[in-house]
């Protein structure tokens, strides 16, 4: 560092750097240097320090540090070996002339570039010199087409198993090699590819296997609940379906309190419950769509396949139990009997849930009637539950089921159900109201047979007398439900339903062919007429539509006429025009049947007012489908029909039973017949359902 700075000030290197040892040259130069004033300061400095040692002078002038002085002292004492008398000669440095360039700066100095080092290896190292072949070299050597060092390929281990066994070369074609095809041998395929693992990895896998837990299989808690689809059906039955099948609350539900304990012990009943639950789910509704969305582990096809499985297993177990109990008594007889009733109940509900129109429900109703008379269940509570539910649907089935012996009246039913059914859950069975429903149906079947046979009068004395007894019983009936129970209002609705069904039954349309004038007047809309007094004779000719004219008081007990007592006949009126209307802009009159009793309209309006009070989430929606059909068949006003239509759809939305769609289909056809004036078909609305090919339970 000191030599560099000295060079910057004086333009020459330090004498230590140059290694000056030639004394005569130094003396000659010192003489010449006396004439140069620019070199006087260092010379004076050197002569001024003649009294001190040479080491100290060099240290003060050129080095300036104690470490450099010590180094100079050591080198001067041992290496150079001069004495003090010769110091004056050696101390004078050789001065060389400087260039005339006074603009020299240290910043102008630049570092010399480094010598480039080759980055690539020597070709001699990469490609060793090939050995000279033996023999005389060719004048024109041949260029080898392949590399000099030929790579040998080992045996392939990826061939098919057949070629490896036969030790033949395999072309490794997939799925079968062509070598096996050519030799007409069976190609066993190719071995599975295995990932190579080191010994340490294999040892680690063996260690993990030895320390891993043994595999276990979780068996289902209940027989039949084996898959995710089964758990979906099971949850739907417990949380939704069992609630809509009865009017009972959540804390007291026979479909869970009685059916589930039996199903846990009996596989057939468990399959029946799961099959019923699967048939009840409608996957096109928002509920069904969310059900699939929340259970991503299954699909609609898997649910349908599992539903068929439970349906088949339920029937198979049922028939096996029937054959088993017929052969010999069994200690499990007490379990098999209630399980059999439970399965028949599920089969009946399946027909309602699917909306089966082929009358398959009647097979299960007949089986119940045969079994209950011979082998009733021992549990009185279960007997009450089963008897009420089946009997309710037996009564409802009488509405559409046309008895083959329509002229026979069934024997009077004893109200013994009230003693067997306690506590009541549904309506009309324990209190005896629905017992009059098949009796009214029997009267209707008798009148229908008289109309077909052209018997006059079509409503005979026996039918009228029996209708009077039923009317008195209906009027005396009162519901007995605790205050606040919605079934109290349903009871009033059922009472109106029974009366409307009775009145519409004993007042059928006439079957005598009308006269031409009567036919023309029947096309027009009938007028609103007032009923005659009871002690007043009725005229024989009335305003009727086609196929309606009668002179019998038995077939039409209440005959309507105009205020003057003369028949209300309009001579050749224009069709679809109300001549009696004084104003042209008045709304069209409501089309009503001839001899219409306004009391029916009043009863229908009151019934619809009660029907509108039930909320869509009311448990009583389970009981409203039956009155919707009976009351809807007596709705002649479009506004009344729309209210019944809404009530039917609301009941369908609550229960989810597709037989509600069949009820609405029958009502739509009956209302269409009202528009065309076919009152005979409107009166015989069970026959309308038969012509549509619908045989179902409207409940």
Automatic annotation (TrEMBL):
Keywords: DNA-binding, Nucleus, Transcription, Transcription regulation, Zinc. Residues 1-17, 541-583 have a biased composition (Polar residues). PROSITE patterns: ZN2_CY6_FUNGAL_1, ZN2_CY6_FUNGAL_2. Residues 159-187 form the Zn(2)-C6 fungal-type domain. PANTHER family: TRANSCRIPTIONAL ACTIVATOR PROTEIN UGA3, ZN(2)-C6 FUNGAL-TYPE DOMAIN-CONTAINING PROTEIN. Signal peptide: none annotated. GO terms for biological process: positive regulation of transcription by RNA polymerase II. It comes from Bombardia bombarda. One of its GO terms (cellular component) is nucleus. Residues 22-55, 510-521 have a biased composition (Low complexity). One of its GO terms (molecular function) is transcription cis-regulatory region binding. It comes from the Eukaryota. This is Zn(2)-C6 fungal-type domain-containing protein. It holds the Pfam family Zn_clus. Residues 1-55, 106-150, 510-598 are annotated as: Disordered. It is found in: Nucleus. Gene3D superfamilies: Zn(2)-C6 fungal-type DNA-binding domain.
């Amino acid at each position: 560092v000191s030599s560099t700075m000295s060079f910057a000030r004086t333009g020459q290197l330090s004498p230590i750097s140059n290694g000056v040892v030639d004394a005569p040259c130094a003396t000659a130069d010192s003489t010449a240097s006396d004439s140069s004033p620019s070199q006087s300061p260092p010379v004076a400095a050197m002569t001024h320090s003649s009294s001190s040692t040479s080491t100290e002078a060099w240290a003060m002038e050129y080095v300036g540090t104690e470490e450099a002085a010590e180094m100079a002292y050591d080198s001067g004492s041992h290496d150079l070996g001069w004495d003090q008398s010769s110091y004056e000669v050696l101390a004078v440095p050789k001065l060389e002339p400087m260039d005339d360039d006074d603009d020299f700066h240290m910043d102008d100095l630049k570092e010399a570039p480094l010598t480039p080092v080759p980055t690539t290896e020597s070709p001699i190292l990469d490609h060793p010199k090939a050995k000279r072949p033996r023999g005389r070299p060719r004048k024109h050597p041949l260029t080898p087409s392949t590399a000099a060092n030929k790579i040998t390929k080992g045996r392939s281990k990826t061939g098919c198993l057949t070629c490896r066994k036969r030790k033949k070369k395999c072309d490794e074609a997939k799925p079968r090699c062509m070598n096996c095809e050519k030799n007409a041998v069976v190609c066993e395929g190719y071995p599975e590819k295995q990932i190579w693992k080191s010994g340490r990895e294999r040892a680690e896998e063996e260690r993990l296997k030895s320390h891993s837990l043994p595999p276990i299989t979780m068996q289902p808690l209940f027989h039949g609940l084996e898959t995710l689809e089964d758990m979906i059906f099971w949850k739907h039955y417990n949380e939704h379906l069992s609630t809509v099948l009865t009017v009972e609350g959540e804390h007291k539900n026979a479909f869970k309190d009685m059916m589930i304990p039996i199903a846990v012990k009996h596989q057939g009943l468990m399959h029946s419950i799961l099959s019923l639950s699967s048939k009840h789910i409608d996957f096109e509704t928002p509920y069904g769509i969310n059900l699939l969305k929340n259970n991503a582990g299954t699909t609609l096809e898997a649910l349908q396949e599992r539903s068929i499985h439970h349906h088949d297993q339920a029937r198979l177990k049922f028939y096996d139990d029937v054959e088993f109990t017929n052969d010999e008594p069994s200690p499990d007889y007490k379990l098999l009997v209630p399980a059999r009733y439970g399965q028949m109940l599920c089969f009946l509900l399946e027909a309602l849930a699917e909306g089966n129109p082929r009358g398959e429900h009647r097979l299960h109703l007949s089986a119940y009637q045969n079994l209950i008379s011979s082998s009733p269940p021992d549990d009185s509570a279960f007997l009450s539950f089963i008897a009420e539910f089946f009997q309710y649907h037996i009564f409802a089935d009488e509405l559409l089921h046309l008895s083959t012996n329509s002229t026979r009246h069934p024997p009077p039913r004893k109200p013994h159900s009230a003693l067997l059914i306690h506590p009541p859950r549904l309506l009309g069975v324990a209190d005896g109201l629905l017992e009059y429903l098949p009796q009214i149906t029997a009267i209707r079947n008798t009148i229908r047979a008289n109309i077909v046979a052209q018997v006059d009068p079509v409503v005979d004395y026996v039918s009228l007398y029996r209708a009077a007894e039923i009317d008195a019983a209906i009027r005396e009936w009162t519901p007995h439900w605790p205050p606040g129970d919605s079934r109290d209002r349903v009871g009033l609705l059922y009472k109106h339903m029974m009366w409307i069904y009775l009145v519409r039954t004993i007042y059928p349309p006439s079957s005598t062919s009308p006269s031409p004038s009567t036919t023309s007047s029947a096309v027009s809309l009938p007028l609103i007429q007032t009923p005659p007094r009871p002690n007043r004779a009725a005229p024989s000719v009335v305003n009727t539509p086609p196929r309606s004219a009668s002179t019998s008081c038995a077939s039409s007990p209440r005959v309507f006429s105009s205020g003057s007592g003369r028949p209300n006949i309009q001579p050749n009126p224009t069709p679809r025009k109300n001549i009696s209307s004084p104003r042209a802009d008045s709304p069209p009159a409501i089309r009503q049947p001839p001899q219409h009793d306004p009391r029916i309209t009043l009863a229908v309006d009151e019934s619809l007012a009660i029907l509108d009070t039930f909320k869509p989430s009311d448990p009583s929606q389970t009981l409203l489908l039956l009155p919707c059909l009976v009351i809807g068949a007596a709705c002649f006003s479009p506004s009344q029909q729309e209210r019944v239509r809404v009530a039917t759809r609301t009941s369908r939305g609550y229960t989810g039973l597709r037989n509600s769609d069949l009820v609405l289909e029958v009502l739509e056809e009956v209302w269409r017949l009202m528009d065309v004036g076919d009152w005979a078909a409107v009166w015989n609305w069970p026959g309308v359902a038969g012509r549509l090919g619908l045989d179902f339970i409207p409940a």
